[in-house]
Amino acid sequence: MTSRQDFDKSTTSEEVVAAFSNYNAGTTILITGVSPNGLGAAMAMALASEHPAQLIFTARQIAKADEVVNVIKTNMKDPPPIMSLEMDLSSFESVREATKRLVEQKITINTLINNAGVMALPHRTLSVDGHEMHFATNFLGHWLFTNLISSNIAQGGRIVNVTSGGYMICPIRFHDIDWEGVEALPQEEQPDFAAAKSLGIGSLTSPGDYNGMLAYLHSNAASMLLSVGLTKRLQSQGISTLSAAPGVVITELQRHIGSFRNATMEYKTATQGAASLLVAALDPALQSRSGAYINDCQLTEIISSHVQDEQVANRLWAVANKMTNCNF
Fold first, then answer.
1. Residue 263 falls within a domain, yes or no?
2. Which of 29, 39, 90, 311 could covalently link to 127 via disulfide, CB atoms 3.0 to 4.6 Å apart?
3. What number of CA atoms fall less than 13 Å from residue 77's CA on the CB side?
4. What phi, psi does 54 have (nearest 5°)?
């Protein structure tokens, strides 16, 4: 149970940060993917108002993070220290360079919010390292970054991995991680075509066909398994890892979604979408709930076993080790 049962899908980031101000003040919080008009910016603006010791923003283009920093400094009387860090999560080299800067400065991080991502790229695109772009950016980059800075995360710290409510549609494609077109996927790795159609993703029939929304949801499932894997490895250090979904929010992230719209969807503002992520990051009642999932600002039952199976998480962890040439 969360501390605030009155919070729901209409709750704003400002309301969450005000409610948990004692758990924000004096802490260092790092948010990946901070750019104007996005969830990262909404979290940044709210957190800055309640006296954190330091905020760290990463962005693929540092000018975008700096734009958010400038808005905070312009509109806030006593803004906290803020550091902008250039990091392209789709590039292992960029992730390592960014991490090196943080480690060299011996920065202790209380809360890490893995927020950055790409969504619904219309054509199959590979990262500079040769991996499908959604998987590379949304999962592999965060997996590598989190592992590289894990020694900088404070005892009793918290990690939040941002996912989406559609995580159940696309299990991990271990036989075709990079969407190369393998048709003979095992049944347990195939997308739920009926559920995809009901969400307006389209009429899909072949497991091997690339679809931008499915690739995005595939990476979301991987992000939830990252929470499972980190819980197993970091919980003994008092570090809690949670998954959180913002709901349907119209931001720059959705610029590629085209006709993907469902008349039954309820759209949130950026500050309402970011609220669930901040509940996961700040609510003291969730420190003992590592591996849990937050949606509409409340603990929510995970309805698909493929994103909470420790064996699947370990298998994915081994895949990430191999892809990044690491041994975490």
1. yes
2. 90
3. 1
4. -160, 145
Continuous H helices in 188-211? 193-198
Mean pLDDT over 12-22 rounds to: 97
The answer to the question of residue 105 being in a domain is: yes
CATH of the domain at 83: 3.40.50.720
The model's pLDDT over 22-37, given as tens digits with 9 standing for 90+, comes to 999 999 999 999 999 9
This prediction has a pTM of 0.95
> Is 191 among the domain residues?
no
Residue 182 lies in a domain: no
**What is the total count of domains within the chain?**
1
| Domain carrying residue 230 | 13-167+212-305
Q: Which of 138, 217, 111 is nearest to 173 (CA)?
A: 217
Strands laid side by side in the 28-32 sheet: 82-86, 54-59, 28-32, 109-114, 153-162, 240-245, 293-295, 298-299
> Residue 261 contacts by C-beta under 8 Å, 6 or more apart in sequence?
200
